[in-house]
Task: structure prediction
Amino acid sequence: MFLTLGYLTAQDHSGHGHDHKGHDHSTHQGHDHSGHDHSGHNHSGHDHSGHDHKQNAAHHDDHGHGHHHCDCGKHDDKFDAGKIAFHHIMDFNQFHVFGDFYVPLPCFLKSDDGFKAMLSSSFGNAGHGNGKYAIDRYVMVHGTVMRIVDSSFPMGKVEVGCYGHEDIMKDGKELPLYTVSYNGKCLELHEKSTLDGGILGGGITSFYDFSITKNVFTMLLGFLILFLLFRTAAKAYVTRKGMAPKGIQSLLEPVVLFIRDEVAVPFFGHKADKFLPYLLSVFFFIVGLNLIGQIPFFPGSGNVTGSLSVTAVLAVFTFILTTINGNKHYWEHIVWMPGVPAWVKVILTPVEIMGMFIKPVTLMLRLFANITAGHIVLVIFVSLIFIFGGAPTMTQAGSTGGSILGTAMAIPLTMFMMAIELLVAFIQGFVFCILSAAYIGAAVEEAHH
Amino acid sequence: MTGTLAALGAGLAVIGAGIGIGNIGGKAMEAIARQPEAAGDIRSNMILMAALIEGAALICIILAFFI
Result:
């Protein structure tokens, strides 16, 4: 039954797009979908189109619920390399290792009902990163914690049904709407609050998420590794005073000297020592996390430097340092450029003020886009195996010949890309460092005209 | 339709950045060939300039996909 349904789903999928509204998809409760039930239970609001077509005459009964339809089961339709790549670069409340095995991470959630701390594993595992239970109205959807909007939903640990996801039009924008089924009803879910003010489709919702997510976990790991490395090296300078560097010392010393001689001294001159700690911290933080992101399995693979929030904070540090260290000449050149006619100054001042903000924005976007693009390309290259294999669904095997051809292409391409990414990891760390130095250096430079 | 236009816009931005970075790389190679002893300075300036051009291209790409 599973194979048949899978085949029918795949067959019908192409002409169907991802908008299922043309058909009657009211809830089909009471059907037995056990054969291909991935999320485990209660498949109300099921939408496998192939299934519908096969039996459309018999089952066009309309169980109107007054709610919109739960669009469950859409996620396991067909192999979609783009979707998998975007999934890979996102941040999650649990760490996916392989198959259905997840490393639990602590969740710290704050809502009107108070503060809640728990492990992500307490949501249970219903496959695909979905949780089995709702805990105090929180649910785990595809590895991300969300909250049931309906305040009449029982608190405590409650078993819930399948999760749905559709795009709805709101204020002329296409926004995702997540739902969960419970007792045959379709309940709307809130995503966590974000501070983007709706620019990236987020906003303040009913709860805040302060969890140790996958990215935070990777960042802490990076801190730990860097701390141990530098602690060892720093100790060695005390215990081996006056002797030639050895071990980790000889790994780190050339890099530190390179940053000092090639970045700090040319831009800051005699003030180099004041800014060197910041430049070194930024450089090693970015390079370290870029390299951890290159490890394709468990402790690695987190896309930390490819997360806009992380790069935004780094860029804000540079912006703050530029602004508070800016001397008289710096501000004079921004607000009232000397040596040009007055009417040019009127044009130049707004441009210079915009430039003040565009500099950190480009810093943020450059690092984010480079690292994210690298991760996406790597995942797409690995996906070639499955694309050439031509598997009709994600849980079914494709053709062996196609898979072998795909593998033969994927291995050299992935290795090539990994080598490029190794280079990019260092170049982007260096570029962030040298541009920060250039921006701060321009603000502290003495006048010479 | 909007997606196609965004992709076209991103592509145009990349063409511009490609020409720019190509020019930088080419000139830097010429400069290093002429003065090999200044290779270190030229290389770090080359990376700095390429990064600045890349920034302009990335703003275009990001805007193309967000608007």
Remarks:
- The interface with chain A takes residues 40, 44, 47-48, 51-52, 54-56, 58-59, 61-62, 66 of chain B (CB under 8 Å).
- Residues 2-66 of chain B form a domain with the F1FO ATP Synthase fold (CATH 1.20.20.10).
- The helical segments of chain B are 2-34, 39-66.
- The radius of gyration of chain B is 15 Å.
